[in-house]
Amino acid sequence: MKYVINGVRYHVDTWGTGFPLLLLHGFTGNSEGWKEFAPFWKDHSKTIALDIIGHGKSGSPPDIGQYQIEESAAVINSLLEKMGIGKIDVLGYSMGGRLALTFAVNYPEKVRKLILESASPGLRTEAERHERRIQDKKLSEKIQHEGIKNFIDYWENIPLFHSQKSLPEKIRTRIRSQRLANSIDGLANSLNGMGTGVQPSWWDELAHLEMPVLLITGNLDQKFCRIAEEMSKILPNVKWKTAEDAGHAIHVEKPELFGTIVSGFLSQTGENNTNGSKD
């Protein structure tokens, strides 16, 4: 399905029946990456998989302001209104996790449950954000000067995705095809408009989120395990699951485990989790 919001075309895939579940992919990804989870979630969730601005089949406008993470959260709110949806569950991975958290902070009344896979509330200090903006600007210039293929060659080999090297070739080829389907302008503008260096820090807002939150990390991704540990000490109603022998993208590396964990969390009713509980 296609929706036009603020002059930008947004692509949305839906499947399943039940309570609405919004899925938000990571940087260089798209909604296709979630389709293998239909068997896990289709009976209890009406899944709404969005191509985030600058990705997949959604538009890649030149205005950086339209990529800002709070603007993208407002777009999600408008999308839900167009779809006649009042309240949802939200699952976001990496960049999509930052967007999911931003939506929950800005529209807490719209979120029943929040699932964050390898996600961060942002950087705490302006000095850290300034340094990250410089790094993201260099990456965006790399995309523009060298093209998508050369950038994806580089991106696939950063340490964050090292654990994906052991995946079957069929899966790695599928992920690469999804990444290559993006546009130069879309990825470059996404880095400059929605990167960690330009988004607000949500650390101080975590204590105010009352909805049940599930944090999922891979034990090989030590950076995001540390972030999840810090978040779990602040969020009032949180569970933290760690997948063994998995890196940043648990849904890619351990799909059956990921699908089962998410399904279990969404199917629970009336939970009142202890702050910082970890399984």
UniProtKB/TrEMBL annotation:
InterPro entries: AB_hydrolase_1, AB_hydrolase_fold, SHCHC_synthase_MenH
Top-level taxon in the UniProt lineage: Bacteria
EC number: 4.2.99.20
Keyword hit for Lyase: yes
Xref: NCBIfam families: menH_SHCHC
Oligomeric and partner information: Monomer.
HAMAP family registered for this protein in UniProt: MenH
Protein name: Putative 2-succinyl-6-hydroxy-2,4-cyclohexadiene-1-carboxylate synthase
Organism for this UniProt entry: Cytobacillus oceanisediminis
Organismal lineage: Bacteria, Bacillati, Bacillota, Bacilli, Bacillales
